[in-house]
Design a protein that fits this description.
The complex is a heterodimer of chains A (about 110) and B (about 120). In chain A, about 0% of the residues lie in helices and about 55% in strands. Chain A has about 110 residues and is mostly beta strands. In chain A, strands 2, 5, 6, 10, 11 and 12 form a 6-stranded mixed beta sheet that branches. A 4-stranded antiparallel beta sheet of chain A has the order 3-9-8-7, with no helix packed on it. The termini of chain A are far apart. Chain B is globular. The chains are: A mainly beta (about 110), B mainly beta (about 120). The interface of A and B includes residues 42, 49 and 51 of A.
């Protein structure tokens, strides 16, 4: 069965520092991976997605993620964070025959301090 | 172009009452998904519907929960005889196609259900 694991529940960083939010997946079938951001009391907004092709995926707000098949990872990175990046981040995956039935990780709370 | 609209934003029910959560998908979207987010957890898939059809309800609790997406009007998630454990945020997402890959999901802002 497919599963998605986010290794850190909370990540505090200072403004303008780099950040990496970790995500690992397990699956025996073709996998599609996503990162979503959730601001307080709001829905989820898609940051980026990996479907196929280049393993380095660039998304909105300066975020990028790298698909690593050998390590079954899809870590999210940003070279310099802003206060406004403070939010909950969710990694999610699905397989080719599951469509929008996403499996979500537990979430990582990113807290950016001045 | 309005996004996915969910109402109410907040819903308080006493134990034993019924909760009705509504979701209007984005214009042109005919696929609707419901997810539940329990405190301190990620989202869990509940049900996938197309107009007038339930496609996949593998994530729905066997009792008290039901969902519909009629030909006209919003999708409804109905919880009968609510219990404290039903307290959660319920998110609706829509897509023009089967979702996930070429048709990423668009999420609403959720309905936060509190059972007292």
């Amino acid at each position: 069965a497919q599963s998605v694991t986010q290794l850190d529940s909370q990540v505090p960083v200072f403004e303008e520092a780099p950040v990496e939010l970790r995500c690992n997946y397990s699956s025996s079938v073709s996998v599609y991976l996503f990162w979503y951001v959730q601001y307080p009391n709001q829905g989820l907004q898609l940051l980026l997605k990996y479907l196929s092709g280049s393993t380095l995926v660039k998304g909105i707000n300066g975020f990028e993620a790298e698909f690593n098949k050998s390590q079954t990872s899809f870590h999210l990175r940003k070279p310099s964070v802003h206060i406004s990046d403070t939010a909950e981040y969710f990694c999610a995956g699905t397989s080719y025959n599951q469509g929008g039935k996403l499996i979500f990780g537990q979430g990582t709370e990113l807290s950016v301090k001045p | 172009n309005a996004g996915v609209m969910q109402n109410p934003r907040h819903l308080v029910r006493r134990r034993g009452q019924e909760a009705r959560l509504r979701c209007s998908p984005m214009k042109g979207h005919s696929h609707v998904y419901w997810y539940r987010q329990l405190p301190e957890e990620g989202l869990k898939f509940m049900v996938y519907l197309q107009k007038e059809n339930i496609i996949d309800e593998s994530g729905m609790p066997k009792e008290r929960f039901s969902a519909e997406f009629p030909k006209e009007g919003p999708s409804i998630l109905r919880i009968q005889q609510v219990v404290r454990g039903d307290s959660a945020a319920y998110f609706c997402a829509s897509s023009p196609g089967t979702g996930g890959t070429n048709s990423p999901l668009h999420f609403g802002n959720g309905t936060r259900l509190t059972v007292t």
